[in-house]
Amino acid sequence: MSQTIKQFRLSAALAAIILCAAPAFAQETEDPALTALIAEKDAAMFAAFNTCDGDTVGEYVEEDLEFYHDNAGLSRGRTSIVEAVKNNVCNNFTRQLLPGTLEVWPVPGYGAIETGVHTFTNVGATEPHGIGRFLHIWHQDGDTWRIARIVSYDHGPYTPEAASPSEDERADLEEQAAAARAGMAEKSKEFMDKGGEIYVEE
């Protein structure tokens, strides 16, 4: 049987995503000014999201946006999110950032990574119905910041417990995050020591 060797190259940006995607709550971020900037842009983008203004939402994302959703799958392009806001979000539900969960980390030479927890509330309801985690990769071009990649995951029904983990749960999350980051840091080092290439035999 013949064998085909496939070569995969992982970008530094993807490595950064993996290292920062482990769950964590209320960690101190490295750059308060950058955190404030991204928080402002997040608020402006989702103010438009919550008021059926898909065109304005589109101004905050790159033309070649990739949106990874653990229920809906992968969608590509700015048009996809603009149409989703107009056709699926508008008059159905709104999104709220859960206070105390926003984290922002710089990506030198590119932009920033934003992570957090958000809730979703049906129009006319007084309490959220859903909760999930998100990761945004922001690209800086001069004074302009746009999201290049969105990862929306860990969706489930909203409960007060899900929104406010206990001290024991927080400790467990922090331990999991530390272990995940340590493991991925080691794998990332091994990956880079091999020249940034992985070979898989079939």
UniProtKB/TrEMBL annotation:
- Keyword Signal, does the record have it? yes
Signal peptide bounds: 1-26
DNA damage is among the record's keywords: no
Which InterPro entries does this UniProt record tie to the protein? DUF4440 (IPR027843), NTF2-like_dom_sf (IPR032710)
Which domain of life, per UniProt?
Answer: Bacteria
Q: Which UniProt keywords apply?
A: Signal
User: What residues does the DUF4440 domain cover?
Assistant: 38-147
Q: Gene3D superfamilies this protein is in?
A: 3.10.450.50
This one is known as DUF4440 domain-containing protein
Native source species: Hyphomonas pacifica
